[in-house]
């Protein structure tokens, strides 16, 4: 653009204008645009900044705003879905619009709304900027649209009589109805809030006495109606404690699932959103009728563990093929059983697979009682694992290397697919090269997708741990900048960073979700 304007200069009769003047004018023009409260759009998403934010709030009844960073990979991944949702809402003449704020440039807005990670989405209603609602939906276009629609209209359908209630209950495979004698009471209001959050379920509300009688109820109750398993599940409201929104949400999630789920692309979100603490998995090949018959015993064992253990069938030749590496398995290992403790991804395996319902129940109860040790993955150590500057650790060799009392061992726990790990790979190699002649320092790495440790759980990648020499089996997590010089200061200072005066008061950039606050490279 600068060159184009420079070429046009003589034609416009302004022969003395050079490129520096043109650049200055362009800069001033951009500043004027930012200072304006005019609202521009990109793919039906409002482009917001501190000078037009108030204008946008006054113009739109509901405004969902994404606070993003241009460099954030999660934000870049969300952008197409966010734009698609914005287009869908605009096409249906919704009172809601979507907007975005570059929080790295609009620091005043980022500070005002407490932005600490990217992307962060907040919903502003009726021009109120003091109490925005945090977005809690899925990060895809359909999830965003559903979440907004639930807040743009009533969260529940009022059921006036038995005909309306029967039609509502039969309208879908799964519906929730709240029976409340006082629809303006605290319990009913809490129910409405649950309905507003659980956008993937359909909610109704009944207050008529004839409806209480028709469904066998005498007091305030939330009922889940299903066309599978138990047809009606009741959750009575405690008259003393009221309605616990978190517990109701959990129970609806648990009981909305089939007693035995099949792991597919369509059900995976449901399976993990239910937050059931243990998953019992039956891996089988659905093309084998003999293996399919194993589902009967599996289902028979499931009833006694609802809410505590979720039973899932995984087809090793279908959608389940993608999760086999997580268990160190191949399709040839089917049929087999695994139990997973979700809080730490610990996996448990029968000594010998027994698919009878009694054996499955006995095994699960033993795991819940802490009587079974986890089954830990370990790759085989490469032949040259200790000949290169970066030592390659696996589950089988970790203990003897990391807790060698004569060595200070600095370990990178990584995933091969992780872009942050890839970004710091060169720095880790350079660090190892720098310390390769030090007898007391070992620079190592371990692929945490192929290796597991009994007492160390890795929650994100890369994770860096320092194991100092000496007795005591100490472990220090490294949380600072990931570059060679800072790594070296940390090692040379015995596993801590020397205290240095702050260089500036600059506002620290929040990380992408799932990424350590330390830069990745």
Automatic annotation (TrEMBL):
Residues 14-26 have a biased composition (Acidic residues). Residues 3-153, 367-496 form the Thioredoxin domain. GO terms for cellular component: endoplasmic reticulum lumen. Residues 14-36, 498-521 are annotated as: Disordered. InterPro entries: Prot_disulphide_isomerase, Thioredoxin-like_sf, Thioredoxin_CS, Thioredoxin_domain. Its main location: endoplasmic reticulum. It is an enzyme of class 5 (isomerase). Disulfide bonds join 72-75, 418-421. Residues 510-521 have a biased composition (Pro residues). Keywords: Chaperone, Disulfide bond, Endoplasmic reticulum, Isomerase, Redox-active center, Repeat, Signal. It holds the Pfam family Thioredoxin. This is protein disulfide-isomerase. It comes from Gymnorhina tibicen. The lineage of its organism: Eukaryota, Metazoa, Chordata, Craniata, Vertebrata.
């Amino acid at each position: 653009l600068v060159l184009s304007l420079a070429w046009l200069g003589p034609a416009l009769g302004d022969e003395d204008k050079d490129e520096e003047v043109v650049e200055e004018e362009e800069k001033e023009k951009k500043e004027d645009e930012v200072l304006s409260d005019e609202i521009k759009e990109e793919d039906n998403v409002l482009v917001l900044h501190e000078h037009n934010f108030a204008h946008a709030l006054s113009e739109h009844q509901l405004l969902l705003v994404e606070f993003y960073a241009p460099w954030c990979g999660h934000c870049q991944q969300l952008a197409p879905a966010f734009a698609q949702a914005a287009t869908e809402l605009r096409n249906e003449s919704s009172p809601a619009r979507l907007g975005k704020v570059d929080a790295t440039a609009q620091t005043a807005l980022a500070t005002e709304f407490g932005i600490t990670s990217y992307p962060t989405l907040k919903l502003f209603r009726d021009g109120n900027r003091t109490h925005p609602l945090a977005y809690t939906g899925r990060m895809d276009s359909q999830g965003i649209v559903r979440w907004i629609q639930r807040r743009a209209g009533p969260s529940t359908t009022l059921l006036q009589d038995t005909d309306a209630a029967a039609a509502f209950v039969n309208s879908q495979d799964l519906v929730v109805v709240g029976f409340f004698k006082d629809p303006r009471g605290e319990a009913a209001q809490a129910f409405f809030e649950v309905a507003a959050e659980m956008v993937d379920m359909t909610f109704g509300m009944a207050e008529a006495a004839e409806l209480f009688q028709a469904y066998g109820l005498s007091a305030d109750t939330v009922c889940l109606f299903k066309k599978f398993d138990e047809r009606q599940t009741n959750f009575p409201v405690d008259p003393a404690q009221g309605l616990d929104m978190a517990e109701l949400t959990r129970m609806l999630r648990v009981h909305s699932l089939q007693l035995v789920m099949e792991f597919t692309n369509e059900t995976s979100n449901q399976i993990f959103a239910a937050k059931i603490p243990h998953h019992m998995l039956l891996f089988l090949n659905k093309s084998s009728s003999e293996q399919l018959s194993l589902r009967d015993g599996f289902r028979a064992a499931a009833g006694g563990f609802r809410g505590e253990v979720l039973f899932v069938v995984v087809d090793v030749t279908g959608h389940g093929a993608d999760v086999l590496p997580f268990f160190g398995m191949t399709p040839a290992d089917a049929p087999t059983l695994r139990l997973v403790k979700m809080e730490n991804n610990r996996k448990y395996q029968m000594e010998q697979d027994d698919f009878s319902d009694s054996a499955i129940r006995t095994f699960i109860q033993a795991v819940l009682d802490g009587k079974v040790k986890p089954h830990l993955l370990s790759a085989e150590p490469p032949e040259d694992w200790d000949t290169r500057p970066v030592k390659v650790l696996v589950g089988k060799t970790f203990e003897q290397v990391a807790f060698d009392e004569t060595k200070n061992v600095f370990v990178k726990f990584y995933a091969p697919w992780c872009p942050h790990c890839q970004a710091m790979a060169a720095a880790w190699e350079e660090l190892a090269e720098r310390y390769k002649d030090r007898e007391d320092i070992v620079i190592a790495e371990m692929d945490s997708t192929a290796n597991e440790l009994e007492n160390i759980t890795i929650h994100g990648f890369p994770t860096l741990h320092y194991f100092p020499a000496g007795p005591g089996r100490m472990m220090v997590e490294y949380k600072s900048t990931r570059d060679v010089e800072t790594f070296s200061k940390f090692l040379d200072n015995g596993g801590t960073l020397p205290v240095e005066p702050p260089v500036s008061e600059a506002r620290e950039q929040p990380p992408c979700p799932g990424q350590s606050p330390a830069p990745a490279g």
